[in-house]
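Per your request, structure below.
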């Protein structure tokens, strides 16, 4: 069905010889001189922790032993400060300097090819890392808002700045390949990757894809001077039915589905994206990892001249997982054969290099993957590397193809000089202010009763901070978090590690200075005396007895000071927050998780211990009983004392209860390290909500209840829409200066 529909005439990019295509002849000659094992190795990207022994020592020599084309840092990989990459709860050694040490050790491993008549050609590595909202694997980094927040700014310049600083930081770490940008269209907030999506406007997403790749890769028409991008996840990953991660897109009208979900890739292709990463998801139960759309759409229609890369262990999932993607399973040999022949050029896998090599040797030996197809994949990978100066070409061979390359020593010197220049105060300030601006422009004001915002700071003598969450795992209490002082909760998933962190452990002392990270409490302390800020000061947030005792003491303090609180001098800031999560761990209400055998349920809270044992079934978020008590006590003598609620989340939530209690309500998304400062500036009028030119407006409709996103989306005759949402896409209130004059 897809093969027939795809032949419908769509826009085809028209251009001359592509950025990477110009290197095909040279890449072909190098590939023709390679052994079969060298070719297989170039089509493989391995998680670097696969090279660790039982003592945690990383054996980098395995990179060259297996002729690898690329390695990646997995979601939980961190340097240990001794030159190794480990999977650990402790990532405090994940500084740029230690990442650079890992990169340098890796880049010493080369693939040597003797090209007849020309001599030794050295092929260097692609070093891949996630870059969902900045260089998030590096401690002390400035992190931008997640995509859904940037989409609320509707400001392409914020994406360009995010790409620019991400590029600078990744290069400083010695890496050269970023898994970004995601260009998925936002559909169902039940999806655990909703915060990675870019809103509901395909035209804007096309513009984002083009702008981000252009800045990240920084190509001049001949070479990539920045970081190789990976536009993802091709395609429709944001449109799975009921929002299941790795799920299935239900599609009757393929043309409507295609036109709505492919625009970000068109924009990225126009900017010469070097790689495209394929989605785990399926269209009508055909996994994208084995779909002929990769060949027919990207390589034939759009003349894509870079290479296609899989997501992590994608072929293994096609072979063995089944649901929630499809009811079909197959042998691993069939999965790799179908994936490779569909157009997948590089496989991202977590280890067992020898096993992969054995499978590839078997299916190539059986003629199931042709020599022509293998050579095409290798050619594409080498062409991208040639555009990045990652292949040391012998002088005679370079002259034959008129290939110019920057000497490796010159490139290293330039990068070192750039890194030194980038460590000055002016650089750090510029990065911080770009992130801060992005965070401010991403905030959306959903309620502002009687124009209570902006608050006149000069009149406020009492600020009461509320918003706490208990963390338990497997029935055991762990600690309490206060979300008005929780930088981890402002950053969500894909922060330091895959699932993110609650709390401030990674934003203290020098790390806080370098990132300039701020919670709401931090930002308030720079404006008010500590005596004017009321919140429970826990002596031990892990001791439940002391927590209850100190809560009782705080309640009594509020009661004793009740007479001094009024609507003119008092502000209650109530924070609400989702736990951090990533991918399927953020999914909500998956039918397969309700079955006794759990087949098709990939939720497992051992992967994210902030989350409950069983997958949640609702996006509803409410005030806690303690918060309600304190608000009621403070408002006993003056019901108009303002309560401003701030929601830190990766998606729209069901907010019926807190919206009713609040005088004003701010959707802050996951605003990044500068989020606390951004929120406080907006509350006190140092930044005004614009709601003009689409700044500070919703990039998606905001549902009223869970029923509105049940059995959704389903592509039939039109783009599916949430009917009668609580707030329409584009909604956002503005503030004016009269309140603070």
């Amino acid at each position: 069905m897809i093969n027939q529909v795809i032949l419908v005439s769509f826009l085809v990019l028209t251009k001359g010889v592509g950025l990477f295509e110009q290197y095909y002849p040279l890449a072909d000659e190098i590939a023709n001189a390679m052994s079969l094992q060298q070719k297989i190795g170039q089509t493989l990207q391995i998680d670097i922790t696969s090279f660790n022994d039982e003592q945690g020592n990383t054996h980098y020599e395995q990179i060259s032993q297996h002729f690898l084309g690329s390695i990646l840092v997995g979601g939980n990989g961190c340097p240990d400060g001794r030159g190794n990459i480990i999977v650990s709860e402790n990532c405090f050694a994940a500084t740029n300097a230690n990442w650079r040490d890992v990169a340098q050790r890796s880049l010493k491993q080369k693939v040597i090819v003797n090209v007849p008549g020309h001599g030794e050609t050295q092929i260097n590595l692609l070093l891949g890392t996630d870059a969902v909202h900045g260089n998030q694997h590096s401690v002390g980094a400035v992190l931008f808002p997640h995509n859904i927040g940037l989409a609320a700014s509707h400001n392409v310049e914020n994406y360009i700045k995010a790409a620019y600083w991400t590029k600078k930081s990744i290069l400083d770490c010695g890496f050269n390949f970023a898994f970004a940008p995601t260009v998925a269209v936002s559909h169902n907030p039940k999806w655990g990757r909703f915060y990675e999506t870019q809103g509901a406007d395909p035209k804007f997403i096309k513009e984002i894809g083009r702008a981000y790749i252009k800045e990240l890769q920084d190509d001049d028409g001949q070479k990539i001077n920045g970081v190789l991008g990976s536009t993802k996840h091709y395609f429709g990953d944001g449109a799975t039915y009921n929002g299941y991660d790795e799920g299935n897109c239900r599609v009757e009208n393929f043309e409507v589905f295609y036109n709505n979900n492919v625009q970000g890739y068109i924009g990225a292709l126009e900017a010469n994206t070097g790689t495209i990463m394929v989605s785990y998801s399926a269209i009508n139960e055909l996994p994208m990892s084995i779909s002929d759309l990769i060949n027919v759409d990207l390589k034939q229609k759009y003349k894509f001249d870079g290479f296609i890369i899989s997501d992590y262990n994608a072929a293994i999932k096609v072979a063995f997982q089944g649901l929630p993607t499809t009811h079909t399973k197959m042998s691993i040999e069939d999965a790799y054969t179908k994936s490779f022949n569909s157009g997948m050029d590089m496989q991202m896998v977590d280890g067992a290099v020898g096993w992969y090599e054995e499978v590839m040797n078997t299916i190539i030996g059986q003629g199931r993957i042709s020599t022509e197809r293998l050579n095409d994949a290798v050619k594409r990978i080498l062409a991208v590397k040639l555009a990045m100066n990652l292949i040391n070409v012998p002088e005679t061979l370079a002259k034959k193809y008129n290939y110019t390359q920057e000497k490796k020593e010159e490139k290293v010197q330039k990068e070192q000089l750039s890194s030194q220049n980038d460590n000055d105060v002016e650089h750090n300030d510029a990065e911080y202010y770009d992130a801060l601006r992005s965070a401010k422009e991403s905030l959306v004001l959903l309620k502002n009763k009687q124009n209570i915002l902006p608050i006149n700071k000069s009149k406020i003598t009492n600020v009461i901070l509320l918003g706490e969450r208990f963390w338990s795992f497997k029935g055991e209490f762990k600690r309490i978090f206060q979300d008005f002082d929780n930088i981890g909760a402002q950053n969500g998933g894909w922060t330091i590690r895959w699932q993110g962190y609650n709390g401030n452990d990674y934003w203290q002392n020098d790390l806080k200075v370098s990132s300039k990270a701020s919670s709401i409490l931090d930002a308030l302390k720079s404006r008010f005396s500590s005596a004017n800020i009321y919140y429970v000061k826990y002596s031990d947030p892990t001791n439940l007895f002391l927590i209850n005792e100190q809560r009782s003491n705080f309640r009594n303090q509020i009661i004793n000071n009740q007479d001094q609180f009024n609507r003119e001098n008092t502000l209650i800031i109530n924070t609400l927050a989702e736990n951090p999560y990533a991918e399927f761990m953020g999914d909500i209400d998956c039918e397969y998780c309700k079955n006794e055998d759990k087949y098709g349920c990939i939720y497992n809270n051992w992967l994210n211990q902030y989350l409950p044992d069983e997958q949640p079934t609702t996006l509803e978020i409410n005030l806690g009983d303690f918060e309600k008590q304190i608000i009621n006590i403070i408002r006993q003598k003056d019901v108009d004392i303002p309560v401003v609620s701030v929601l830190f989340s990766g998606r729209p939530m069901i907010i019926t209860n807190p919206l009713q209690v609040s005088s004003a309500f701010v959707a802050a998304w996951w605003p990044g390290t500068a989020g606390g400062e951004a929120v406080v500036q907006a509350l006190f009028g140092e930044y005004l909500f614009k709601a003009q030119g689409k700044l500070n407006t919703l990039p998606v409709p905001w549902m009223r209840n869970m029923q509105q996103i049940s059995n959704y989306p389903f592509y039939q005759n039109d783009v599916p829409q949430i009917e009668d949402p609580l707030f329409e896409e584009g909604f956002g209130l503005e503030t004016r200066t009269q309140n603070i004059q």
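The first strand starts at residue 44 and ends at 47.

Regards,
D.
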